Amino acid sequence: MEKRKKTYVHDVDRGVYDIKNEVKFRYKVKSGLDENVVKDISKQKNEPEWMTEFRLNSLKIYNEIKLPEWGPDISDLNIDKIITYIRPNTNMQGSWDKVPEDIKNTFDKLGIQKAEKHSLAGVGAQYDSEVVYHNIKEDLIKQGVVYTDMETAVKEYEPMVKEYFMKCVEPDDHKFAALHGAVWSGGSFVYVPKGVQVDIPLQSYFRLNAPGAGQFEHTLIIVDEGAKLHFIEGCSAPKYSVNNLHAGCVELFVKKDATLRYSTIENWSKNMYNLNTKRAIVEENATIEWVSGSFGSKVSMLYPTSVLKGKGAKCEYTGVTFAGEGQNLDTGAQVVHLAEHTYSTISSKSISKSGGVATYRGLVRMGKNARHSKSTVSCESLMLDDISKSDTIPVLDILNDEVDVGHEAKIGRISDETIFYLMSRGISEKEAKAMIVRGFVEPMSKELPLEYAVEMNNLINIELEGTVG
Question: Within 16-149, where are the H helices?
Fold first, then answer.
């Protein structure tokens, strides 16, 4: 019997995510990276001298550090052709009515305004290099919660920013952390006081509209002793024929007995290099929960890291990655156990189709003082055809004998028998595959707020449009 051929649709309509607005700006720096560009960015922001010096020192480190010799090929990324700073043609607003119509319409179509009305306690919206809208509910302000953009925080909360800024992720961590330190712009600053429980999530959404540009937002969150917060981050960009770069940075400080859940759906276009850095320092009996969805982008290198610094600290990571045609998504998680009785759970799922490459790259390190600690790692990969690729590259670094560490990995394809069974019940092949994939990522969907679970399922359906039986 002749083997049935599959039809591959190369350019999937990503609908609302591929909206392109005319590029309007108040100011932009020249493309490339040098000392003048860095000084220009700092001058445009009217920053204190210490931040200008920090940027210039980061630039020096960037020029000294080499590109990583492992992971996906990023040699096609030319920083000389990237515009590192574009200020939109608006100031930050506290009312959607004052945001320029084209920008407001984009965020409206992405569902940001609707989500703010129905399910969020505060929203920040960044467009290209700066935040254009920020708002927080009055009752949180009365409790002492601070939620603002980083540009404002540098001026109005300078002592706290100076104490924590790039102390969790330092510029010499790697080349793109140094790049971020030199040209960062936008992002969010959050401080939750001791004992305050923020029951409704805060959200920041980052939209990159300009072609050939970079986005380098900085997120700094401090959850003080006994406090609780759920923070949601969304990202998207339209597709262009030139490379774009995202090298943001997320620093999370979770104090004693505090809990922070950090949820992300990254839906970049397939001309994007996503070289983001995320890290949390977790104190005694505190908990960090990561929920991460990676879609889109040409290349991703993203490994959220948890440093379990205090006794009884906990980390839970749940992530899903979807790699389609022309994509190489190298993602995973890292946990460093530094204290005794610390616990971590990593659950990673990846899907690859149409020749996409999905790699789990992870690290669990049990330090010398991490006695009676436990870590469990589970990686599952699903390939939708015979031309895609999936790899699992775990590192277990055990420096004492009094720990419990487990790792399991499963890689497989959708079975023809399962498809046949579902089709025999009157379900089309396309819907059968979609049902299997949705079931595969269902544990991730359960961890997301409703609006983001719907978005993730929509993205999966969009991706599956590319393969028709």
Answer: 35-45, 49-64, 101-109, 112-119, 138-142
**CA nearest to 27, candidates 210, 178, 244, 238:** 210
Q: How far apart are CA 146 and CA 194, in angstroms?
A: 12
* Cα three-residue angle 236-240-246, rounded to 5 degrees: 45
> DSSP letter at 330?
E
Report the amino acid identity of residue 92.
Answer: M
Helix (H) or strand (E) holding 266: strand 259-268
Residue type, 86: I
| pTM score | 0.88
In angstroms, rounded to a whole number, what is the distance separating the alpha carbons of residues 326 and 272? 11
Residues 433-459 have pLDDT tens digits of 778 887 787 776 777 665 566 666 666
Report in angstroms the alpha-carbon separations of 332 from 294, 396, 406.
Answer: 10, 13, 16
pLDDT by residue (tens digit) across 368-383?
999 999 999 999 998 8
Angle at 106 between CA 77 and CA 87, to 5 degrees: 55
Helix, strand or coil, per DSSP, at residue 427: coil
Predicted pLDDT at 267: 76
Q: What's the alpha-carbon Rg for the chain, to the nearest Å?
A: 22
Judge contact between 289 and 260, C-beta under 8 A: yes
What is the C-alpha separation between 77 and 31, in angstroms, rounded? 13
| Pairing of β 187-192 and β 146-149 | antiparallel
Q: What is the mean pLDDT of residues 19-32?
A: 65
